């Protein structure tokens, strides 16, 4: 192969990729901030419901399942002990809030 063929193949490979590294990082960060925003707003709404003696297990359950999904993905990609421990806590929280929600129906 000559230099031109190699450059042509590299260009085709780059063109076939959906997005560059920066776009991927921005995409990942947007989901991070979306999750943080959902978590914060759920906390505010839950506190308002608790202040009015209304159970809010449904919202807490949704947030904990989101955490389970995020931590599962992180564990698959990073394989760290910290992620295993956080995932176990999130699963316990998700199951606990789901059971509490079902009992409150």
Structural summary, described in words:
87% of the residues lie in helices and 0% in strands. The protein is mainly alpha-helical. The chain is built from four helices and no strands. The protein has one domain. 9% of the residues are buried.
Summarize this entry quickly.
87% of the residues lie in helices and 0% in strands.
What is the element layout, followed by pairings?
Blueprint: H1 3-16, H2 21-51, H3 57-78, H4 81-104
Largest sheet: none
Structural class: mainly alpha
- Cα-to-Cα separation, first versus last residue: 70 Å
- What does the average pLDDT come to? 87
Number of strand elements = 0
How much strand?
A: under 5%
Question: Helices and strands, in N-to-C order?
Answer: HHHH
Radius of gyration: 21 Å
Determine the fraction of residues in helical runs and give it as a percent range: over 70%
Number of domains: 1
Observed structural traits:
elongated, 0% strand, mainly alpha, 105 residues
